[in-house]
Amino acid sequence: MDENADGDFSPFPSEKFFLLYCYAHSVMRPKSRSDLEFLWMMLDRFGVKLPSLSSVLSFKVEGLENISLRKSYGNGHPFYWISPSDIIKLQLATPSVSNRLARYPEKTDRFINELFQGLQWRIEDQFQTTSASVNGETFYVKDLVRYKLEETICHGQINGFYMKKVEDSLKYFCRLTKMIVTSVEFHSLAVTQEVEEVSLEDIQGESEYKIEFKEIDGQILQLTVEEKEELERPHGTKILADGKPTLTVPLVVFSDETSGNRSKKWNQLESYSMFLAGLPRKDVTKFSNIHFICASNLVDSVTLGKEIATDLKNLEEGMLMYDAKDDQQVFVQCPVLLVACDNPRASEFAHHMGSSATHFCRTCDATKETGAEVGTLRTTDAIQRTIERINTASTERQKKEIRRSTGNTERGGQFDILSSFEAIKQTPVEILHTILLGPVKYLVKKTFNNLSPADKKKVKSKIEAFDFSAFSRRLPSSFVKNHGSCVGRDFKLWAQISVFVLEGLISDEELQVWIYLSETFAMAYGSEVDIDDNDNTTNLIQEMMECLSEVHPELLQKQKFHMLLHIQDDMMKFGPPAGFNTERFEAFNSVIRTLNVYSNRHASSKDIGERLLKHHILKFVTNGGRWGINNRTFASQGLIKLSQQPVIQKFMYQVDSNCSQSQKEIYQPGNLRLETYQNGRLKQLTTVDVLPIGALQHDIERQHINIEQTCKGFKGCIAQDKTLVQEGETFAYKSYNDEICFGMFCTAVGFCHGGNWVLTIPYQLMRADDGDVLHGKFTSPVLQKCEERRLISTKNILEKVSLVHNCDNRCSFVNTDHPIVEEREIVTSERCVYQHDLSNKYYLLNRFYLGESWKYIPGIPDM
């Protein structure tokens, strides 16, 4: 709608039309033409007055008609794609996206949590925004400015901008090359070699002085003509922006192949997608922030990528776009920060032959014989020289010999034309394929194949006896038999419990390999990268390689084990691998597959592209995007409010209802859930029947709890991380004296005027005689289950933790009779069961659990 318009559901004709449009163009639950025709016929028979089906299918939002599919050709076949530049324009014009976008790299003292905190973004100039606005005035890199330093006016030349947390809030700074005033009368300066960091708030304006000299080792020297010209030359983006603000929006591109069929028959679809690297990590995993570019079952990925790169090149060089955050036109550049993909596709981008090559690593020249160490790093220049040698070789035999001896090939290189992208440096190790579907899968196969049938039954019984209450799902015991057909999520669960399950069933040497691998897995899937812990992480992987060389030397010939040696460098450059792993993109492949299934498959690329283009536009409109003349057109508030309904969010984006309703009070931390009902009404309970008041007297007095005669009973509570903690689950909580403690959820009560409280069984953290935390098996902290009960506020529950019973010789395997159904009859079968001796009250805090329970333990050894 226009700012002065009053239409309730514009730009759609009516509410009914909008809902039908959403239904007909859904990408999560696509409908075929015959499905839609049947629905229209059925509603018409019911007497519902509807717009025609053709009008709904052909509807275009006025003012957005110019956003259309592009058509190109590859290998003689047509394919269709959505230009990344159109996607970026829509995203920046959407306030909810633009306001969350990181505009500058963030400098951190120790921990890296986001892509924009990684070294690649912080150090490389092409990923950094080159201007900042202070008090309505725009300053660019290389501008000479005046700034205040301790009440003194100084002069300096801007080198770059960045963010930094100061007292829990983000502040904006710039790096300046310090200048010395050589003459006030002649307004001359001398450039020094000192760099200062200054808050943007301290910049006073442009300097009226000129740089005439340079200061070297305390001496003031005259600048040469060339040096002076270089210092006075404006930054390139300042010239291109023509006085407008600039904005750099790095991108993460995903490339993969998937099947276009539901059946096992392979129908290969090559696809490309992307997301904005400046969004917080919790946002980029949402389907609504994953942006489809193209798919084709006829054209190979190299051809698709090279065509997409033509538009990415234009984005890299920059273009004017509307920025909803500042409500103005800005000069936008979008370099590719990294490409997320599996190892074969990453090798393709890097002109590498893949794992079958003698030099099987795309990053260095390692071979199967030298795979336990990092080889000589490859360079882009050397790869280009090799490609020239291949192209100029006179015979095919000579070409093969060059490829064999170097591992490089002339094929691939989709993004070679991009000046900001180096494939060998910006295709980081992808942890789903390189850890879970690599070393973990290899080691599972070898470990289980070496087990006797009796030991396999024991593994199965220990899996069944394991406490999975902290996890989102259980690992089925059939994993032992069907591990060959399991997927990444199964191996992810196994990696978190493997050492506890395999203990006592394999040799100590083999178990040590699993310990190292589990630690590497937990590090790679962690939520942060500790800069100060870089050496320990490197040592961990080196120790794993040494252990492998003694226990499983043949596995060192696998490319994926070698790639683990490069993972730490990638983590320093790009932050936690969880921020750029392909798991969510792989899930998005199911959307592409489903759209292909519901098309007639005569033009897969076009049909998929058209449906997802309409989805892009619908998403833009319903999220409040702005378009039209001076970007003053936007959807009505009635339409935006309707589109935020949980049912519509789930239908359009597969958003869980808990997420779409996350702002509701019942989903806020501290709220009680799973009430006790009787005859459909909330049951009032007698407090003394629920709580052991006498045993809790100390807690009641210390926390001044108003115990009422009656209360409401609950079986769950929302923790601070917004997860549901239920009866029997263990969690971390903060006591009334601000200590981190652990406990098991027994029950919860809510008083009318006395607040909400949880009855818990505490677990005491064991300490040695010197006061340090006591560690048991696998360097896991030891906790003891107490007999007492504690009463804690629901607002103090932090999150669930994974505890593992500290089994000793009192825990054992027992053969029991187990009833099963065969041919509709119950028969008895012998079954191996692992029984925990619960008189042993000691438990281990699972430090391989991805919930990162170990962060609550003071002084825990670095992982």
Helix content: 25-40%
Derived structural class: alpha+beta
Number of DSSP helices?
29
And the CATH topology of one domain?
Answer: SH3 type barrels
Distance between the termini: 55 Å
CATH superfamily of one domain: Bromo adjacent homology (BAH) domain
CATH class of one domain: Mainly Beta
Instruction: Work out the number of β strands.
Output: 37
Question: Largest beta sheet, briefly?
Answer: 12 strands, antiparallel
Average pLDDT, rounded to a whole number, is 91
Structure description:
- It is a single chain.
- By secondary structure, the chain is of the alpha+beta class.
- Among the domains are: 112 residues, no CATH class; 143 residues, Roll (SH3 type barrels); 149 residues, no CATH class; 175 residues, SH3 type barrels, CATH 2.30.30.
- 32% of the residues lie in helices and 26% in strands.
- The strands form nine sheets. Strands 22, 25, 26, 27, 28, 29, 30, 31, 32, 33, 34 and 37 form a twelve-stranded antiparallel sheet that branches. Strands 3, 7, 8, 9, 10, 11, 12 and 13 form an eight-stranded mixed sheet that branches.
- Helix 15 packs antiparallel against helix 19.
- The radius of gyration is 31 Å and the shape is globular.
